[in-house]
Structures are given as C-alpha cells and as structure tokens.
Amino acid sequence: DFIYKGYRETHNRKYVNNSWVTITLDKIYPLRSIKQITAMFFSINNPNLSDAHKELREFVLSKEKRGISEKEFGFYLYILRGKILKRLGIIAIGNIGERSFCPRIVSELSTPPFGLVLEFQPKDKKGFCDITFFANEFDYNQKATIKLTIPVYESNSWFPLDYRSRKQIMEDYIRNRISSMINEKIRKIK
Known about the structure:
Elements: H1 2-10, E1 20-28, H2 30-44, H3 49-52, H4 54-61, E2 73-82, E3 87-93, E4 104-111, E5 114-120, E6 129-130, E7 144-155, H5 166-189
C-alpha cells in the first residue's frame, strides 16, 4: 500500500538529484507501513539484531504496539534514482579527518521507488525525510493521508549514505587518482 502509492506518486517523474519534492500518500496505514519497513531491516541484517534491539522486535511482533524511541532509532525516506539497489546491514560510517569523530550507525535499503535508512542513536536527520513518527502517532487500523517532503537521491555506489551522481563519482576518482600519482612521485624523489 505504502510502496504502491509511493510508486504511483513518483513513477515517470523527472526529478533532479539532490532536490526535494512533496508527495501525498493518500489513505495509507502509517503504523503498518513502519512495522513492515522495520521487518525489512531485520531481514537484511544479522539475526542478532532482534536480540540487541528488543524494543524494535516487540514493536514488529505485537500487532497493536506503537511507539519507539526517537532517541534510539531514526527511520528516513528518500526517492530513489540511480542504478544500484542497496541492501546494507548495520555499518558505522564517519569522517576520521574531523576533529571530533562521531560515527553514524546505519542500515540502508533501497528499492524503487524509495530508499530507506535506519539510524541507531540518530545524529543528524537533516537531508532526509524522517518517518519515525509513523510508529508514534498512529494506531494499527488508522488510515491517514500524509504529505511528505522527500529528498531525491541517486544510488550509484555501494557505500551507505553516498548519493553522488555518476559524474561526481568519476570526478572524485580522477582527482584521487591524480593525487595518488603525485604523492607517489614525491615519495620517489625523497
């Protein structure tokens, strides 16, 4: 229902990468949808995930249960463009070049029309459409018409949260290759 209506809203639309679009999902079941999304994340991760996060397991297995901690879990949505579908289990990512290294723990799943991200102990929700409220504001049999403003991201690499265009990936590759060659020549001179 959620995916089907999302597909109807996004199919054959010409969205620009890194833009934001507003779509309306008419008469969906938000709580059912977020439970299904959570189950999908369980299916692409290690079986121990349900033992490590009992709150999520109980949330999925109990039909009427609603409510998850937004300090512990963040569920994000984006409109998928690009060639690579992702099924990424839990991964820690971060920039080790920064003074205060603060890793993000994420799992990512993408299949048209959407990409989905589950973040543990969310650090930065900007850049995503946060749908965690699906778990906290609706009952199991409650339908809702929801207007969402969603980013459009390309998926052209297997790296989590990497939404560069193919052109950007090639430019980065060339820049890194040239830098590597220059550094190698400098080492040989010394």
